[in-house]
Every structure is written in structure tokens, then in C-alpha cells.
Write a structure and sequence with these properties.
23% of the residues lie in helices and 39% in strands. With 122 residues, it is an alpha/beta fold. The protein has a single domain (4-55, 67-121), classed as Roll (2,3-Dihydroxybiphenyl 1,2-Dioxygenase, domain 1), CATH 3.10.180.10. A four-stranded mixed sheet has the order 1-4-3-2, covered by helices on one side. A four-stranded mixed sheet has the order 5-8-7-6, with helices on one face. The chain is globular. The chain starts with a strand and ends with a strand.
Length: 122
């Protein structure tokens, strides 16, 4: 249902380094790249993620209750992505663990404060 999600950033190149590393671990790369917008994903694959400086010129803001969930292939990949993000300075929002039976996730924030999680169901 969701084609892609776009998040705002105050520094596109700084944020791109963070998302390049996360996307590489998920087995995808950049699929669209301009001076003002970068998107990661795979045509025909799951939902992608994009970054942009807000078009209205105002500072980017983090939505309260907004989160992007990154689907992983197994628990080990959840742990790896969470630890990768943390190694790049991502604030911790909840270490990897089983949140309820069949749902394992780790939560963190990107360089602009957007909340993400890496998860696996099943």
C-alpha cells in the first residue's frame, strides 16, 4: 500500500551517509538522487524511504508519533541495523528485543531526530 516515505532533513549529505549504511545492510541502494532529494529502495520492492530539505524552506520537524519501520530478514539483521545506527551516533529509543510474541524490534533516531525501527515479524 505505501510506495515510499519521505522525511525532512536539515543536512542532506550528513543524513545520506546514515541512510546509505542502513540501506546497504537491507540490500538496497539509492534509486533516485538529486541535489535536494535522495530515495533508497528497489523498484518493485517494498516501500522506499526518501530524504529532502522541506520544500517550503522552513526547518524540518519530527512528527510526534511518527515512525518509519524497516523490515528485516531475521533477528540478527535487526540487531545489526540497530547497532549500525547506534555506531553512527543514533540515539537509542529501545534496544532490540521481543515486544510481543512474534514481533522483535529495535528503535533509534536518525541524525535529524526522525524515529525509526528495525523489525521482524514471526
Amino acid at each position: 500500500m505505501i510506495g515510499y516515505v519521505t522525511l525532512g532533513t536539515s543536512d542532506l549529505q550528513r543524513a545520506a551517509k546514515f541512510y546509505d549504511a542502513i540501506a546497504a545492510e537491507l540490500g538496497v541502494g539509492r534509486m533516485f538522487d538529486t541535489e535536494t532529494f535522495i530515495a533508497w529502495g528497489k523498484p518493485g520492492g517494498g516501500a522506499g524511504i526518501g530524504l529532502t530539505k522541506p520544500y517550503d524552506g522552513n526547518p524540518p520537524t519530527v512528527g510526534n508519533g511518527v515512525m518509519v519501520a524497516l523490515e528485516c530478514k531475521d533477528r540478527a539483521q535487526v540487531d545489526k541495523i540497530y547497532n549500525l545506527a547506534r555506531s553512527m551516533g543514533a540515539p537509542d529509543e529501545g534496544a532490540p528485543g521481543e515486544r510481543w510474541p512474534g514481533f522483535y524490534a529495535g528503535y533509534f533516531r536518525d541524525p535529524d531526530g526522525n524515529k525509526l525501527n528495525a523489525f521482524i515479524m514471526g
